Amino acid sequence: MRLKIGFLYSLILLSEIVLLPLSSLGAEKATIKMAGSTTVLPVATKAAGKFMAVHPSINITINPGGSGVGVKSLGNGLVDIGMISRHITDEEIKNFPKIDFNVHVIGRDAVACVISSEIYNAGVKKLSREQIQKIYTGEINNWKEVGGPDKRIFVIDKEAHRGTRHVFMAYIFGDENARAKGANLISGSNNEEQTKIALSDTAIGMLSHAWINKDVKGVGIEVKGSVIEPSIKNIQNGSYPISRNLSLITDGELAGFAKEFIQYILSPEGQKIVETSGYVAIR
Amino acid sequence: MRRDLKEVIFFSACIITTVTAISLLFIILSAILVRGLPAINLEFLTTESKEFGQNGGILYQTMGTFILIGMAGILAFPIALGSAVYQTEYLSLSLRGTADLLVYALNAVPTIIFGLFGYMFFGVFLKLGVSWLTGSFILAIMVLPTVLVSIKEAIESIPFKYLEAGLALGLTQERLVRAVIIPQSIHGMVTGLLLGLARAAGETAAIMFTATTFSGVLLPASFREPVTSLQTHILILAQEAINPRALTNAWGAALVLVALIMLMSLGSMLIRATITHEAER
Amino acid sequence: MWPLGRWRPGVAFFISSFLISISATGIIFIFLIVESFPIFQHEGLGFLSGSEWYPGEVYGALPMIYGTGIVTFIAVSFALPLALGSAVITSEVLSRPTRLVIKMMMELLAGIPGVVYGLLGITLLTTAVKNTFNLIDGNSFFTAGILLSIMILPTVMTLSEDALRSVPKEYRDQALALGLNRSETIFHAVLPGAIKGIAGAVLLGIGRAMGETISVMLVIGSLDRIPQPFYNIFTTGQTITSKLGREGAEALGVGYHWNALAGLGLILFLAVMGITFIGNSIVGPLSGRGINTKRKQKKR
Fold it and tell me: Which residues of B touch C265 (CB under 8 A)?
């Protein structure tokens, strides 16, 4: 046991300390990091899969989290591309004075007011802006007040930074940060909200229209007596009132692989991915 | 008669609680088994996940977990060993209690706080970003007390005659550490490391926004890339609990993770149960 | 014995590792204070007493503090009777091999990760709670509390059992000799002797319950609101940990929102540290029982 164990471990400890700065310098393999909106996520993931198949030397990592995470991650320099499904707020621009936010619109989407299929099938096929507003403030708390069965409304709100919430609240309340005092539950991603609504039989919530399915129904929005369904057609012709751009954001002018990737999404092949994900292509 | 009745009631109550506590374990384990087993097959274990985890397997999630905890173990072990030796052999007796309390305090820090701190310190300040190395550093700090205490206990349980023999041979403190203390506490190092790795493998909150990503990563090619992990994979799939395919895969991943952790815990228990010192045989 | 004058690599290594181990907690504490300072400047004590939290406008931590308190209370209320009952049986009735098997099972139970408990909670427990109590939704303080009670059960049970067994055998013999039956012996001789250890076990359980994030986050509903009336535990709410887990990634590093989350972290840190410190002082910090749920077999 004359081994210099202590010396050996001093070396290890020293190497641990040296490892830190070294690791931040080295290893610049072509990696594109992305994070943000779960509405943009499916497009980005599918596009990344195809892009990486053509460019095997490039690695694209994608994290969900919501539009707020997309902006913050780009602002903190943690990702190369942020994904957002709303505009960047003034506060966010103020928080990151050094970042030159550059927005690349890749598609269009609608935010649907969604309800449990049980309520939809029981007759609630449309809601007006005022009705939704009252549901979210708690003034209306039973489905029978809006033409449905005698059941309490389970009101699902979203985390404050989520793009879907910003767009939805901007239409319903005229304020993207509106407070919803009638809410019973807060959810996060589109998947989570879709799950919560499907599991409940009396829920109302807000979702990208691409998440509507047999358990989660999108109601028509009643505007001046006519009912507008959340459909691709109505997003395309601009009649559906709660629509938005889906965008990728970068810091300053594009360069390198990130540029190639965004160009790919804007290419006809990339735009087809936008369409098959349930959104409207912009080109 | 009344005293007898009380006795019966008391012990029945105790037995009911015992049975409840034990059946809870069985309910939980069987729930994981029943729901997880249908997902498990060779393909599930050896292919990458597809379509947001709804299809495919968990190969890279499993490897990601191994990478995270492996590096955490490598980082934590020497520090734990050095500190354990210092606390038992060098530190003045009056300070040992305080040192212990500080180590226990580290153990009690809520893991989500390690996540916030680690993100700012390793991720932003040291510019490691969201990467597996950030995660490993965080997990290393988190499991440090577990490994440390285990080694310390092993050192403290070395029979005194060993030390006497060493001192009688005229060994200096440092020689004693190298020749007696470290070799005689290897079982403590192994059990401590196993317990620490098991704890790190079960941790989600500390790494969920610092080290892992959801898709696009197979194996990291550098220190600065994130990985996927079983823990965060389960977390994301759990949030879409309605989709049966996603849910089956979540249970499958949970079964693999629990099995992994239990293997490590059982390993440490076995080593602990079988170890006896030569001098006491 | 400060080894000045013999700064060999080995000793230097021991000292530096030691310093890292004992300073980590302090560094994290200072980090939380520094990062949360602006929010206390901005909101004053209103940060602690405010009941509204709207990022960018107002930050009040009270609903989260309330949530952490009530969820922990529920967890302990359910875990304590279970833990105590099974600790009594294990320590006073069962034979040594059976006892070891039960303690081993408890250790395995303690190893199941929080995210797996969360998965159990979100798929099985929420549905069960919803149907049993005929609620509009199964996510609630109650659900989170139940889940936590299962998670802290091994800690509380193992440490309580240690406390019971540390009561000298003579106490029991004397009580039995005085004509007390077994339950009276346990009540009048064993429990009073073990009460401090049990209190320590409960405190360490509380510390663990307060710090658990993932499982709570998945079943609590994440609504920053104190229920009306305040004891209505069958509604959705928020704990400090679930808030940090939900909003951490979004707020990291920038603005009052981040400072406010760091402030929440500081409150949680102080509470957990205080409780664990008292718990460890009672249980005996030198035994290592607070960390690895095992007993040291031999002392030097």
Answer: 112-113, 116
